[in-house]
Design goal:
CATH superfamily: NAD(P)-binding Rossmann-like Domain
CATH class: Alpha Beta
Number of helices: 9
Number of domains: 1
CATH architecture: 3-Layer(aba) Sandwich
Largest sheet: 7 strands, parallel
Radius of gyration: 17 Å
Amino acid sequence: MPERSAQDLGLLLVTGASSGIGAASAIRAARDGWDVAVHFNRDAAGAETTATAVRAAGRKAWVVQADLGTGDDIPSLFAAIDETGRPLRGLVNNAGIVERAQRVDEMTAERVERMMRVNVVAPILVAGEAVRRMSTAFGGQGGAIVNVSSLAARLGGAGQYVDYAASKGAIDSFTKGLAREVAGEGIRVNAVRPGIIETAIHAKGGQPDRAAQLGSTVPVGRAGTADEIAETIVWLLGPGASYVTGALLDAGGGR
């Protein structure tokens, strides 16, 4: 069993923490001294597995369900966080979706609207709730936000998911703007832009073998892992990154 960290960094909310990068980030953060609110939408069993691993690292974990795509569940998500009695000091804005590969001239309004609602509107609203709890302007103790973007924001996603790439481009812009907005209120805001990572999101987009197929095209010669991205995210959350804000950190093996 990993040793409990001597640090107590406060409460961290990780959205989309039932699997993949979200789950890896929650577990890695616990080893550094974070208690974790483990958010999920549908995969309750996965969220419980993540929470069990957080507790095994010696930290507290709360499992919280919310459908962030509607916006209606976001206030109740934060009401549940308030009920923990722990000060919110960190947010990993990770929850997001990808759709099946399509050209732009094949996309429907429903697809694009859902993509933007889940990948852009929800993270902005979640961050707003977090700011109201962390900002010194609201009586908070400060904190850190890490938005999970994608190298697709820079590469464009042509022939596959330009809408997803566009949603992550919006997250990049949002990261820059929010970082400047709350820099004087004790909150740092950064983004990590993963490249080809071995997670279940590829299967959800209809391409379960995508990471294996494209891994050899990455300059380092392989796809990355969720644990590698989690290391980057947790570093940005912690005191070692105390002078880093407004950064868009690529974690794509050189892509």
